[in-house]
Amino acid sequence: MGSTQLPPGTEESLAATTALAAAPGEATDMVQLLGPDGTLGSDPIFSDYAKRIDPEKLRVFYTDMAKIRRFDQESTALQRQGELALWVPLTGQEAAQIGSGHASQPQDYIFPTYREHGVALVRNVDLAELLKQFRGVSNGGWDPRENNFHLYTLVLAAQTLHAVGYAMGVQRDQKAAAASDSTDPKAAVMAYFGDGASSEGDVHESMVFAASYNAPVVFFCQNNHWAISVPTEVQTKVPLSNRAKGYGFPGIRVDGNDVIAVHAVTEWALEHAREGRGPVLIEAYTYRVGAHTTADDPTKYRESAEEAAWREKDPLDRLEKYLRAEGLADDAFFDQVKADGDELAKYVRSTTHGLEVPDIRQAFASVYAEQHPLIAEELAWFEEYSAGFESDQEASN
Amino acid sequence: MATMTIAKAINEGLRATLTKNPKSLLMGEDIGHLGGVYRVTDGLIKEFGDDRVLDTPLAESGIVGTAIGLALRGYSPVCEIQFDGFVYPAFNQITTQLAKIHARSLGKLTVPVVIRIPYGGGIGSIEHHSESPEALFAHTAGLRIISPSNAHDAYWMIQKAVECKDPVIFFEPKRRYWLKGDVDVESPGLSEDPFKAHVVREGTDATIVAYGPLVPVALAAANAATEDGRSVEVIDLRSISPLDFDTVEASVKKTGRLIVAHEAPTFGGIGGEIAARISERAFLHLEAPVIRVGGFHMPYPVAKVEEDYLPDIDKILEALDRSLAY
Ligand SMILES: Cc1ncc(C[n+]2csc(CCOP(=O)(O)OP(=O)(O)O)c2C)c(N)n1
User: Fold this and answer.
1) CB neighbours of A201 closer than 8 A, spacing ≥ 6?
2) Which contacts (CB < 8 Å, 24+ apart) does range A45-52 have?
3) Which of A23, A320, B41, B322 counts the most CB atoms within 10 A of its CB?
4) Residue B97 contacts by C-beta under 8 Å, 6 or more apart in sequence?
5) How far away is chain A from the Cα of B88, in angstroms, using its nearest Cα?
6) Complex ipTM, two decimals?
7) Confidence of residue B58 (pLDDT cuts 50, 70, 90)
């Protein structure tokens, strides 16, 4: 990376923070501000970013993490009760998602994978809409342009390329806006993916394209240690953040269970991208505490001791400790958070039952944007076929 | 009216598109300074700059995937895949993403990406440079697939493809790149709708349906058949998806006989779809079963034997004889 791309001093510090660890599982080299014991440490670059987070914002971080965990529990329960076909839990990854999501600005565009419920919450997506896909009533569910939060993508890594292309478009728009003295705020794009997905060719190609075109994109990899049953060690021999160097842009590993550090690092990265200094890779080092999905059984492939060790690093617990120790939140606050969570769970439960099953005619209507004779022909056949049943029924009445 | 080759017509069509649509851009391997391995994009980088004509990294999934992102942002990217046999690394992006985003978003998002692919054999090339994978894409709902057979269509169809809100795969008959023809740059005429078939030769005894590189072969076969006193109608499909069955049906109702010719393997190909549909739509008008002329069920053979593989005048005439014998 050229030294002109980074603020003074940043490059050296980044080199330190992204140094090669002994093994991906033993990182000693990540940015951490809020430790598991709830005490705040410091970092030469990112403490400045952390200072921007005022107490009210910290309380919002906690509230959102608690909300999305409660939502996760409720959705898991709904799946167990047969109300959802599948659920993809996020417990353990709240800080990575809430911290990074809050670092984005409304004009930024987000490409999630399929587990980013926390980011969706931050981006004001109605969580009931998020469940449409899992209930089998939609392959999407929300209008991505309303909150600049794209639809979930189930084919791993495909969206990382869309993010880069979108960022190339943003870059062009910004160039045009600069020429016309527009006051539109500068935007960046963020692509989320997992440690397993990092092995897919599309992630590699997206990083090549991002570097070639200096695209304003932040790659946000949640390394939750498992791709279904396969550990990160099978995907990579080096910390994932180190890969960025090979493409020619900064890579930062951050403690993904530390919402303050995640926010600080992501804010830095997004500013870096918005200012035209190119892409950044963030590896949020975290853990998927529960199953990969409700169809998975983690007892078959991992030790419960590993899970227990990670529970000790819980992102909510450590922020709670900090807020209490600093006198920034009291029992009343935490009671209110709990009550709000229960309220959200109730809302989700009732709206799930009410999610409308679409008419298949809606599917006919959206295959193509323009008129297509085969669709018209097949729809006409379907209408006639369906009408046949209706007239049979009338006849038998 | 101007006379030009198909390659030049596509070049001029792209030039017209880049001029009138500021959000359009070209992307692909070697398409800028080299002008593409077939020089179809020759000179465009000079005229429009490397912001509009991108020499991309060498990555097909990357080209199509980033084009999707650009389209989501409001741009109209036209991708070039260097050769037919190299589209497969992008197959995932085309079939699971490009084709489905409009449906997945219930129509809220459109991805007007055009993918140009030089396709087909007959140029004596080596492996992966002579394939006809159109059926693989036609089977995927959400994509439109067209292929011009002459310069006028090439000039207009590429422009119409970019204007279309749906993703379009534009198959270019590479062995016809140097075929010259008249282009009316003032008016598209029948080319206004690129998804409709054209009757390019009228006849009464049998119909031959072809598209892209085989249209001239079908016409030559029809001409040869007149020596035996046969009047053969020829249809240039132009669009493979949607397929203009109405035009084919009307012709078959007149002639009673249908031959479908394409370079792609016969098995599982577009010809089978046409045969099945026409049997259903015009069963009582058919004097003979629909006969397909196409490639064998084998990887595209080595260049020294491709003549035995490719549908030619004689193979079409043989099919015609069989049809007329019923
Ligand atoms: C291309 C592709 N291959 C396989 C799958 C099936 N699959 C779904 S999730 C998953 C593991 C993904 O792991 P990771 O990228 O680490 O993300 P995580 O789910 O842990 O967040 C697999 C193999 C898929 N969705 N897409």
Assistant:
1) A157, B61, B89
2) A45/A9, A45/A10, A45/A13, A45/A14, A45/A268, A46/A261, A46/A264, A46/A265, A46/A268, A47/A264, A49/A263, A49/A264, A49/A265, A49/A267, A49/A268, A50/A260, A50/A261, A50/A263, A50/A264, A52/A267
3) B41
4) A153, A155, A158, A162, B65, B68
5) 13
6) 0.94
7) very high
The CB of A313 under 6 Å from ligand 1? The reply is no
Indicate which atom in ligand 1 lies nearest the CA of residue A158.
Answer: 1
A contacts of B142 (beta carbons < 8 Å) = 367-368
Assign B12 a pLDDT band (cuts: 50, 70, 90).
very high
Residue of A nearest to B100 (CA): A367
Q: In what order do the strands lie in the sheet with B258-265?
A: B198-201, B232-236, B206-210, B258-265, B291-295
Model-level pTM? 0.94
Catalytic residue among B129, B152, B198, B262: B129
A151/B105 touch (CB, cutoff 8 Å), yes or no: yes
Say how many Å lie between the CA of residue A156 and the centre of ligand 1.
6
Residue B36 and residue B28 in contact, taking contact as beta carbons nearer than 8 Å: yes
Angstrom distance (rounded) from CA A120 to CA A130: 8
A196 Cβ inside 6 Å of ligand 1: yes
Name, in order, each residue with C-beta under 8 angstroms of B303's C-beta and a sequence gap of 6 or more: B124, B125, B126, B130
The rounded distance, in Å, linking the Cα atoms of A394 and B95 is 43
Confirm or reject contact between A158 and chain B (CB < 8 A).
yes
Closest-CA distance of chain B to residue A326, Å: 44
Using the CB atoms, write b or e for B229-242: b if 16+ within 10 Å.
ebebbbbbbbbbbb
- Whether residues A205 and B65 touch (CB distance < 8 A) is answered with yes
Give the nearest chain B residue to A364 (CA atoms).
B103
Cβ neighbors of A360 (< 8 A, separation 6 or more) are: A382
Distance in Å, CA A55 to ligand 1 centroid:
37
The predicted-structure confidence for A3-31, as pLDDT tens digits, reads as follows: 334 444 455 555 444 443 333 333 458 99
Burial A370-390 (b: 16+ CB within 10 A, else e): eebeebeeeeeeeeeeeeeee
pLDDT digits (tens, 9 = 90+) for A228-264: 999 999 999 999 999 999 999 999 999 999 999 999 9
Catalytic residue positions of A, numbered: 288, 292, 301
Phi/psi for B292 (5° steps) reads -105, 140
